[in-house]
Specification:
The protein has 220 residues and is an all-alpha fold. The protein has one domain. The chain contains nine helices and no strands. The chain has helices spanning 2-11, 19-25, 30-54, 59-71, 74-82, 87-97, 103-121, 125-156, 163-219. Helix 4 packs parallel to helix 9. The radius of gyration is 30 Å and the shape is rod-shaped.
Length: 220
């Protein structure tokens, strides 16, 4: 008995709180934060795959287009463009279909097609940026609401307030801030990464367009 009384206070197992328990303690605002994290992950993965397809090496394609245009095989150039699913191919296809028109009209057609392709590449990136900004704010809102609830509980407590009650109320309130910041940081990093990848694709589109227009000028 004496041994049990001496050992038990020091060897009592520490209470381990799982991630799921922490999530439940975060309150109702954890639901939109978690949902926004799923939305951010979906958009990031979907855009990465789309941009990767758009960023394929087009050097062999442009070489074939040059040969066909120099030979005057416009239909062959159109068919080649239709076989490639990329922004560059669609822009060049628009330019090929306008061969015979004034050069300014061809450039305008290619530019308009390029704007549409850039819009497609940037699809849903604004949502990802919104998640990056809103998730931390939802976290802070949850923390404020949790602190208010904790202080109400402390005010209603009769007698002296123990440090355990105060600590529990504070850490539960801070859970939403941690969750919101994690989601916001990940979404922000993902947004900037995708913007960088889109910029690379746009530069490649511009380079291919200039190359094609130069080809038409030489053919004249």
């Amino acid at each position: 008995m004496m041994l049990a009384q001496i050992v038990s206070p020091e060897t009592a197992p520490e209470q381990v709180i799982s991630l799921w328990d922490l999530t439940l303690k975060g309150g109702p605002l954890m639901i939109p934060i978690i949902l926004s994290s799923f939305i951010a992950i979906y958009i990031f993965v979907e855009r990465v795959l789309t941009i990767r397809r758009a960023n394929q090496d087009q050097s062999a394609f442009m070489t074939s287009i040059k040969d066909l245009v120099q030979k005057g095989d416009v239909n062959g150039a159109k068919m080649l463009c239709s076989q490639f699913d990329s922004p560059v191919a669609r822009m060049i296809e628009k330019g090929v279909s306008r061969i015979g028109s004034p050069l300014k009209n061809i450039e305008a057609s290619i530019e308009n097609t390029g704007k549409i392709e850039i819009f497609k590449l940037e699809k849903n990136l604004s949502i990802l940026a919104t998640v990056a900004g809103v998730a931390p704010m939802m976290g802070f809102l949850g923390t404020v609401m949790g602190m208010v609830t904790a202080f109400i509980a402390i005010a209603q407590e009769e007698g002296s307030v123990g440090p355990k009650l105060l600590a529990n109320g504070i850490y539960e309130a801070m859970i939403t801030t941690v969750a919101g910041l994690i989601v916001g940081i990940i979404a922000y990093l993902g947004y900037n990464y995708l913007i960088t990848r889109v910029s690379k694709v746009v530069h490649r589109m511009e380079y291919s367009t200039i190359e094609f227009v130069d080809l038409l000028q030489e053919a004249k």
